[in-house]
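Mods, move this if it's the wrong board.
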Amino acid sequence: MMSATADSPTSSIAGEPSTGWLDRIDAWSVRFGDKLNPILVKETRQALKSRQFVITFSVLLFAALAWTIVGSLTMMPQIYTTPSAPRMLIGYYLVLALPMLLVVPLAAYRSLEGEIDDGTLELLSISTLTPWQIVLGKLASAMLQMMLYFVALFPCVAYAYTLRGVDLPTTMLIMAALIVAGILLTIVALFFAPLTRSRTGRITTLLATMAILMAAEWGLAFLMIGMILYGNPLTTGQLYFTVTATILIAAAIGHLLLTATAAQLTPESENRSTHIRLSIMGLTAVFLGVGTLAALMLNREGIPVVVTLIMILGVLWTACSSMMAAESPAMTPRIRRELPSSFFARCTLTWLTPGPATGLAFSVINIVIITFFIAAGLEYLIRTPNAWGQPYAIFARLVLTYATYLVGMLVAVRWIIAVIRINNNPRVEVGLAALIVVAVISALVPYSIGLHLNDYRPYAYSQWQATNWAWTMLMVANGLDLSAMIGLLSVMAAAAFLVTLLASPQLTMPRRIATPKRVQEELDAAGTVC
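Not the wrong board. Structure tokens:
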């Protein structure tokens, strides 16, 4: 009699348990991979199979092995009795820094630039992928390569640590700084990739990207090698502040650059401005928070940090505001269908929508808020018992003076670009050029007139040089009290700003339009709420 279990399905499955188990894992991996960003999957497959990755990874392993053997042999027999970690760790750092700070960012740059050159970006733009998915997929693929490089060299770093001479917190700090710098430089490279479409422009951006990467690698190597050789010079409070500030600022700058990169990949018919403006506000809040933290944690040692952050904020808002004031006034129906509709929302959120008038209002409102925050903060610190000193009261006046002149120049830029747009359609970068022209003329013309009236001999500062922002700020820095004149200039700048907004109410407060029935049906069919 034939056994009932000999040919049963159960016995056949039980006879190959490993195959069924592996098949289930493989099926689950396939489903999980399909849910991931398809750009990440594509980029990872291409990157890991590319000649660049194979060569770089092979050279990395060979260099690490060679330095392990050569470095260890050259320190024999003292390696057993004296601390030898610094020398070995410097070599491992240089081996790891080259692919993480140079090779991977350049590969990410070339990958995104290749999508543009080959025309595949247009195909991706008509798919369901968003520009953010494309950019994040490129970044995630680069981060995966960095992780592989880091994991491959981690045993070597552990070996160097066992040789004594560098403590564990310093080793971890060096590796963390390398990872953060690698990610941020990759984001910078991605930002430069779609910046221009012309051949000459691409060569220029490539050279600029390489210069930034080389400078960052050299500067970071100088800092890290010094830390390896001489130890961490920071106190506990300074170290906590440095780590916190570095993470916050790197995250804010990275988000802004990623947002700007995604905006460059976004079609002109869609809203490019709102996310960038929100990201700039986030970066500003981080800078102000880090400055406040430096003033409270570091006391007088935080003065250079606060001054540097304020100067960076000034440069940031000067450049961004001039470009926002030069945005195109054209607003597609798709953008207008997404505008706020209620009165409160229009009063508070309209300034985030695209357009030169809303961009000017957004910039001026933020400049005023930032200026008063900085002035109030400096005034509070000046009155603190462990005083910052009276010179920083002069710095507060400089901030107020610069903000006043900046608002006036932005109004002038708005009108200049409006005149240019009568017969042309300039890019937003023209706004920055127009701001530079206005700044040069406003300083040079009154000085030249005064020089001519005084027979080209040196003469003293007077109220006639009110528009000469450079000389005025120099006099304020020297301690001259010009409060009355600056107050009058502030009133004039505010009046010009209000007149500019009232002159174009349709641009200042654009109204939302109804969504056509056909478009609404398509959105409902796609499961999207308009």
